[in-house]
Amino acid sequence: MRLIHAQEIIDPVKQICISSNYILDEGTLRILKSSRNKESSDMGRYVLEEILDNAEIASQESMPLCQDTGVSVFFVKWGQECVLEGMSLQEVLNEAVRQAYQEGFLRKSLLRDPIFDRSNTGDNTPALIHLEQVSGDKVEITFLAKGSGADNCSQLTMLKPSDGLEGVKGFILKVCREAGASSCPPWILGIGIGGTFDTVAGLAKKAIVRDIGVPHKDPNYAKLEEEILDEVNLLGVGPQGLGGNISALAVLIEAKPCHASSLPVAVNIQCHSNRKGMVVI
Q1: What's the chain look like in SS3?
Q2: Residue 242's CB: how many other CB atoms inside 10 A?
Q3: pLDDT tens by residue, 116-161
Q4: What are the beta bridge partners of residue 141?
Q5: Pick from 72, 174, 192, 279: CA 20 to 30 A from residue 152's CA?
Q6: Do 144 and 151 touch, CB atoms closer than 8 A?
Q7: What is the domain partition of the chain in residue ranges?
């Protein structure tokens, strides 16, 4: 059994919350640079240059990549041999976020209630946590700063099994067409397939934190990711919705078994400001 004190989590998580808001994810940066050379539109190339310039300035000046520093979302893999001392996991991650958003001069966006008390909590808490228990004595915590512009354009549907693969693709393309410029393309598309109504959206969000450029471990889904990326980029939305052939940077799929009479599909759109970080404790 391994005892982990609250402060052992608070300090490193605080740092990844701050650094992720200042420094663009390495995989995203790499694919933005390669996409700049593939973009057919002059305006599209100009926009990609501006995005890359913004990333460089944010990194050098320790400034937020985007004014919307997002909801603090965590994906936690908790080793079953670990015991947390002093505070609950929710309290620990809330404290890390509270300190990070204060010390890092990051915008606080969380409201106390969606309808009856839309006042700001003042510290960007509570954090949203997806917890998975795994074997071992390590804790892996992945942070995602999820802005609302792209999240607001995300959608979920419960297809009929007879809709099949073409129905899945058709829904994804529909979501992308409707999202357009409102979701700050080029996108990273997190796709959830399977599970149930309440889990498929979580799968789509989890897909976003996968490493860009690493194919799905299942060759069928790896091929599907490539096919959907090609079809999305044929829509002509382009960087910032101004036209071009780079509407999406990556398509990342997470799938789970589902009921025989269901085919849940969720599309969680992530904008080009793909702010995430991971720490192992």
Answers
A1: CEEEEHHHHHHHHHHHHHHHHHCCCHHHHHHHHHHHHHCCCHHHHHHHHHHHHHHHHHHHHCCCCCCCCCEEEEEEEEECCEEEECCCHHHHHHHHHHHHHHHCCCCCCCECCCCCCCCECCCCCCCEEEEEEECCCCEEEEEEEECHHHHCCCEEEEECHHHHHHHHHHHHHHHHHHHHHHHCCCEEEEEEEEECHHHHHHHHHHHHCCCCCCCCCCHHHHHHHHHHHHHHHCCCCCHHHCCCCCCEEEEEEEEEEECCCCEEEEEEEECCCCCEEEEEC
A2: 14
A3: 999 999 999 999 999 999 999 999 999 999 999 999 999 999 999 9
A4: 76, 279
A5: 279
A6: no
A7: 2-20+65-146, 149-273
β-strand 276-280 against 139-146: which pairing, if any? Answer: antiparallel
Polymer length of the chain:
281
